[in-house]
């Protein structure tokens, strides 16, 4: 092995980004379900000849609005929420336990501050070294030189 003391490090930025995307996927799925449910309720009311009134929560949002406006709260950590975001998050988490679980799992990734900055730095040094050599013919000698220079 060329680098015997190397250790695996999680690329925190990309893993966290994937987790946030997963949280948003869940939110969007629930949002589409709410849109479809409201559309069906409107059509049913129209067929029955009655006026449709949308249900509003105590903060004045409809379910569609709650899910749409909850986007911003789900990208922030709880200590950075403003009052309206705290209220929306509480309502969303009460209605959708899967969204709550996904959000808190994504937040737990933020606490583990491991980073791959040193690996990225070494990568750029290797690329610069390789560029100076204009290609590598002898791989073993290349790795030997890397170890001697950057180890």
How would you describe this structure to a colleague?
It contains six helices and no strands. With 151 residues, it is mainly α. The protein folds into two domains: 12-111, no CATH class; 117-150. The mean pLDDT is 85.
Highlighted features:
single chain, 151 residues, 2 domains, elongated
List the SSEs and their pairings.
Layout: H1 12-48, H2 63-74, H3 83-95, H4 97-111, H5 117-133, H6 139-150
Give a summary of the structure in a few sentences.
The chain is mainly alpha-helical and 151 residues long. The chain contains six helices and no strands. It has helices at 12-48, 63-74, 83-95, 97-111, 117-133, 139-150.
Radius of gyration, taken over Cα atoms and rounded to an integer in Å: 25 Å
Number of helices: 6
First-last Cα distance: 14 Å
Please state the average pLDDT score.
Answer: 85
Low-confidence stretches: none
In one word, what is the shape? elongated
Instruction: Return the string of H and E elements.
Output: HHHHHH
Major sheet attributes: none
Work out the strand percent. under 5%
Helix fraction by DSSP (H/I, runs of at least 4) = over 70%
Quickly count the domains. Answer: 2
Please tally the β strands and state the result.
0
Structural class: mainly alpha
């Amino acid at each position: 092995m060329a680098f015997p003391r190397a250790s695996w490090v999680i690329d925190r930025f990309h893993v966290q980004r994937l987790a946030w995307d997963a949280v948003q996927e869940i939110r969007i799925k629930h949002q589409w379900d709410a849109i479809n449910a409201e559309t069906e309720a409107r059509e049913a009311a129209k067929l029955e000849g009655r006026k449709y009134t949308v249900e509003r929560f105590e903060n004045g949002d409809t379910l569609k609005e709650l899910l749409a406006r909850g986007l911003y709260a789900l990208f922030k950590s709880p200590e950075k929420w403003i009052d309206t975001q705290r209220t929306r998050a509480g309502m969303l988490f009460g209605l959708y336990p899967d969204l709550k679980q996904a959000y808190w799992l994504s937040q737990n990734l933020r606490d583990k501050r491991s980073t791959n900055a040193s690996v990225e730095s070494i990568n750029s040094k290797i690329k610069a070294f390789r560029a100076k050599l204009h290609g590598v013919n002898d791989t073993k000698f290349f790795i030997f030189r890397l170890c001697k220079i950057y180890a």
